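User: Teach me something about this protein's shape.
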Amino acid sequence: MLKTEVRKIYLQKRRAISAREQRVWDDLLLIQFQQLALPPVHAVLTYAAMEGKKEVSTDALLGYLEFRNPGMQIAYPVFDQQKGIMNAIRITETTFFEVNNLGISEPENGQAAAPESFDLILVPLLGFDEAGFRVGYGRGVYDRYLKLARPDAIKIGLSYFEPIPKIEDTDEFDIPLNYCITPQEIYEF
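Assistant: First, the predicted structure itself:
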């Protein structure tokens, strides 16, 4: 399946998710996430789920990670739309978020964090395949950022749906995930 087909199909599948299904699936994703044998995590890059697009929320996962890793630093992406790049901003209790013109909630204030500073990166996606390649919204922003991350940084995708066999039009710029978690299973690549 081509990336454009994956985007179309999975955006439609997401629109069909009921609020109840999403709550149940988020709980099941947390249970799956808790089964991962993760090393200590000092710094995590996450994302703010776009509720209108029914993205998987990372809130409960972050709460679990903070409990397991006291003092863990959390960062969120900020997109420079003119340059087509992503930066990461560490947040604190006093960080305010603002929704940008793409509907993405971003930190307004905080300290910049280098891509190589993260032990764990939670990656949004629309769909993924059995080799760990993902399809996002089509700008390549995450793949360019992930290329700058440490080779040992753990990249985890979160999906309400199971993988497709193969994304046919991946290229050398696509960065595979280490894991993808669904409500039913943990996929390791």
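Now, about its shape. The radius of gyration is 16 Å. The domain at 3-188 is CATH 3.40.50.10420 (Rossmann fold). If you'd like, I can walk through any region in more detail.
User: That's plenty for now, thanks!
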